[in-house]
User: What shape does this take?
Amino acid sequence: MNLSAVDIAIVGAYLALTIYSGTYAKKYIKDLSGFLVAERSMGLNLGLASLISSEIGIITYMYLAEAGYRNGLAALMIGIPFFLVFLFLGRTGFIIKPLLELRIMTLPELFERKYGPGVRFLAGLLMAVGGIINFGVFPGVEAKFINTVTGLPANAILWTMIVLLAVVLLYTALGGMISVIFTNYVQYILLSLGMVFLTVFGFFKVGWPQIVSTVEKTFGARGVNPFAAGSAFGWTFFFWQLLFQLSVLTIAPYITMRIFSAKDSRTGTRIFTWSSVMFLARAVIPVFWGVLALSCLTVKPDDPLQALPLMIVQLTPKGLLGLMLAAFLAASMSTYASYLLSWSSIIAQDLVGVTYKRLSGRRLDDRRLLIVNRATMAGIIVFIIWWSFSFKSEELLFFYLLLAVNLFLAGTLISAVFGIYFHDARFGLLRGRSWGAALAFVLGAVPTVLFYLPSHPPVSRRGNWSYALALGGMVVGSVAQNIFKPVPKTGDAA
Amino acid sequence: MKLWPLAWLILLARGVGGFAAVSVMIAVKGFGELKAILKKLKRDEDGG
Assistant: This one.
């Protein structure tokens, strides 16, 4: 066991504090209206804390650290597109502002309004599959982290996963979602302390010259220069990531829900501007940890994912290890709660809800919707435990996670842009239509599906192809529909 | 120091420094925002 009594006490105190802050807030937020008051009062600082807490989990640290461990300093390139795209969105309000003006909370709603229920269903289906396959590796990887840091046996991963998910469910049931703003604040303080501590402590303990020399010795030029031959983080990656992050940050339900719930649209866009700094750090700090692990681990693990937890155990003094583990657990709780809620509500509303309406002609009532939502959540938990066990890949975990959501991202971004900016008669044959949106989704998903074939082109190239194919699909489909089925003069453009 | 390591050092310093500074801002001002929300909720409860 790597944890001392003090460490265990710190982790226990953290869990108690989280549950206490949840139940304390619940005293005041008894119903939906109380929740909405709290949500709508959320200012810039709480909005930022909420966004970062839900977007950082142990999984984030693990896949980014693996990228740094296997690629050196060049992997720090991952942070730059995040920074640029957040800054661009905060300054321009691209896609976000029109959605706020249309009073639309989720992208599938926009698709139904602009393209009809068929496209909403297709978008929901791809989002659910891509999102859950991405989410599916979380418990296995996180359990691996927890077992290594605590010193629990490696073959007890299933039990760690079950306990982890049970704690998440308890957290959610005890007010995790209803008082998410309060718990996220506590979690944010803890995780930011842990992140800054480990980075500064590790940097001074190992030393920059030692870090650079290890990277150069291990990888040669490609370890420091992302544009050198053999690097996976050159221009192709950079360009794909600009498009990818633009898509994620404008459409991911767990991000947009927080922006839309800010007290006004100015606060919403300010959250984006400030997030540029936070998301740069969210990427570069864990990548740096991976590089640090490469420099300070004397015995290299067979599984590169183990490098980060092994380094934490080696570098962190006893007593602080508990604080680190509490910080990392804090990071994961809100991520799980947020993802579970997002993906189950997409299945309930955009798949089951749309199908039910189509078959019966009636809307699914709130009680049934809630039942479907809960059943879906239970189903997702069973699935991700199974997927965690069956998942194997030679690729970086980072690339796997990106490609999984790439299944729907390209089609979604192109359809959103055409639905918002190219949806009136001025654009003639290029006016965005439902055939175009459907083709954009189908063709945009093809490069991700190719991931499962034995021989496939590099990840970043496939990512760029998704966007090119989705754009081509939108143009061809829309032009065809505008020729063969033009919009009646006063009719609906779907 | 060579160009690329220097560039990454600057990026890292910018990332960690910015994160630490914004975190302090969130910790201090966010606490004020939390108190304001609680006050508002208490007032609503008393009023309603």
